[in-house]
Write a structure and sequence with these properties.
Strand content of chain A: 15-25%
Distance between the termini of chain A: 21 Å
Number of helices of chain A: 10
CATH architecture of the largest domain in chain A: 2-Layer Sandwich
Largest interface: A-B, 54 and 54 residues
CATH topology of the largest domain in chain A: Nucleotidyltransferase, domain 5
Radius of gyration of chain A: 19 Å
Structural class of chain A: alpha/beta
Mean pLDDT of chain A: 94
Helix content of chain A: 25-40%
CATH class of the largest domain in chain A: Alpha Beta
Oligomer: homodimer
Shape of chain A: globular
């Protein structure tokens, strides 16, 4: 075993241990605790996975290069949690901390759907929308480690209120939880079940959702021009039945679609483990920040 | 003299010759001709600037790495103009062609307002809005050379119609020409003159415009997390009187503003010459694409 990675989600934490071929050789799951207990839980999970190896951790929200969670609306509003410094002190091991979608991007780029591309975008659809950016053959974190908050791209003036406190953020229209809003309060599972059973009003909701996903992906493509966009996250399986509709609307929403090469739209191949595997990959030389 | 750069705009072409210190030693201007004559004019301007040196050209629109203008709504709808290949054949000199905002970004990053930053964003406000992206210490063109079309980020569902054929693009609300739309048909100069003379309705238009600029810059910061954003382009002088309002609205529109370092918002220091100087810089080894 050469590396341990833990993906901290809003409700659960998934940890994996990788051997020197990159294969997952152990896995543990725990419910996500409240912020004060988070560092203790991560230390215990590291031990349960064998310990004695460098640790990478992925978390939602704004993470500084030193591994401090500055703000995380989807992690019960955690603020200024020194995950990296705390774990380094407790474990005496190398510890790398990064944004969860950045971790997923790393894994899909190294061994998944974006393998071999110089410019790729990872889009995680779940409670919110996260993003990871590869440009020029490198994982990009921006100047302060905060790049990739693509869910907070504004897509409608004075639009729906977001957990971040602003209005009209893309994730209020295109995330998994947006289905509840777009359907007037029904759960995403319910909307999809009745859509698949042939219900027309549910089909209209799903179609609007697909349109919002497509529109946002087109804006991001106009900005970043990736070779491939990888859709992942907890809700990505729901996209399956409307993937062709997303592809078609995406192509039409691009700037000057008839004069450009379009990015490939792919679904993540590492599934729910992408974030944890990517977190473990942060421990490779030259990938993770101190 | 070591390099020649020409910036092709919607109405005029500006050419400069740089000496080996990077200083501008000659300058020529010509009206922008129709597409079939463009390559001839560029060859003549190269000669008028002394010739006998590598040439860089910046153009608006989608430019392939080989230097073909695939589409350019702001260049009289030019399509598939082989500017790079044509000039290489005519001049027998090295020729580099890139997007005009990418050229401006290069110049401001190397010797202007973004000097020394690893992550920077150039935003050119004019008839439309162009963008140039520096991430991870490199100029980024995306996978097909089309990165930076930030003016076509969608900011309002079903919004104003854009020259690109879609609706709700940012440049319809925040470019120089957007002032005409926001004011119900008055020219930008007129709106600004009466705003500065104290007219309240003009002040409201200018304030709305400042808000749209700020909102778009905040979305781009959420995505790219630059250290500095440089505002340039033909309309940037108009931003001057409302720059503080843009700064203030930008700060509030950012994701989690109280927990992050904000990018600096600067105005371009190279003025109208940024594009031409950056075009000349494309000729430096390792900067321009073949």
């Amino acid at each position: 075993m050469t590396a341990i990675g833990i993906d901290v989600g809003g409700t659960k934490c998934l940890g994996v241990a990788l051997d020197d071929t990159g294969a997952v050789v152990a896995e543990v799951r725990e419910p996500t605790p409240s912020a004060p207990e988070l560092v203790w839980l991560l230390a215990r999970m590291w031990g349960d996975l064998g310990g004695n190896a460098p640790l990478g951790v992925g978390l939602p929200g704004l993470i500084t290069p030193a591994g401090v969670v500055r703000a995380s609306p989807n992690l019960r509003g955690a603020r200024d949690i020194a995950v990296g410094p705390g774990l380094r002190e407790m474990l005496g091991a190398a510890v790398y901390v990064d944004n969860d979608a950045t971790c997923a991007a790393l894994a899909e780029w190294r061994v998944g759907a974006a393998r071999g591309s110089r410019d790729a975008l990872m889009v995680t659809l779940g409670t919110g929308i996260g993003g990871g950016i590869v440009m020029g053959g490198r994982l990009q974190r921006g100047s302060h480690g905060f790049a990739g908050e693509i869910g907070h791209m504004m897509v409608e003036r004075g639009g729906l209120e977001c957990v971040c406190g602003r209005r009209g953020c893309w994730e209020r229209y295109a995330s998994g939880s947006a289905l509840r809003t777009l359907s007037g309060g029904r759960s995403g599972e319910e909307v999809f079940a009745s859509f698949l059973a042939g219900d027309e009003s549910s089909a209209a909701v799903v179609s609007e959702w697909a349109g919002w996903i497509a529109t946002g992906l087109a804006s991001l493509t106009n900005i970043c021009d990736p070779e491939v966009i990888v859709l992942g996250g907890g809700t990505v399986d729901s996209v399956g039945p409307v993937m062709e509709e997303v592809r078609e609307k995406f192509s039409r929403a691009l700037y000057s679609p008839e004069h450009r090469t379009h990015p490939r739209l792919e679904t993540a191949v590492l599934g729910a483990r992408a974030g944890a595997i990517g977190a473990a990959m942060l421990t490779e030389p030259g990938i993770g920040l101190p």
